[in-house]
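Problem 12. The chain below contains 145 residues. Write out its predicted structure in token notation.
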Amino acid sequence: MADDKRMRLRGLHHVTAISGDIERTIAFYRDTLGLAIVHDAPSDDDPDARHVWFGSGDGTYVSFMEYPRMPDGVVGRGSTHHFALRVDSEEEQEAWRDYLREHDVECTDVFDRGEFRSIYVSDPDGHIVEIATRMSGLGAGGPPA
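Solution.
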């Protein structure tokens, strides 16, 4: 590349998903997971859709556009399998697992991925949310499949 600095991607800015009931989504992401609402307004892309942004304070955002009459999605090509939120330690992850289970949120056991560990929950609309520990570094082959 001619101008390496200008062409480098710096990280993930946000992920936007669809919600059928934004109040239910707020109850999960704000009240259960503790993410702050950083923006709640009509969408710039669709002024008829409410668009709520959640942030963790580290520059990572997940947002939801509300479409209550949209049909349920089908998992397959063109859809998102899951998205991952990060915690700093295995102890913090285990605390999340225990907290979620104590609050009747179905949560997987911890999966050891080698460079990191994962637990999974589903939000009220069926989006799979991974809570992953930090990666200590990946080999030349990239992330695990």
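Discussion. The chain is about 15% helix and 30% strand. Students who got a different answer should revisit the alignment rule from Section 12.3.
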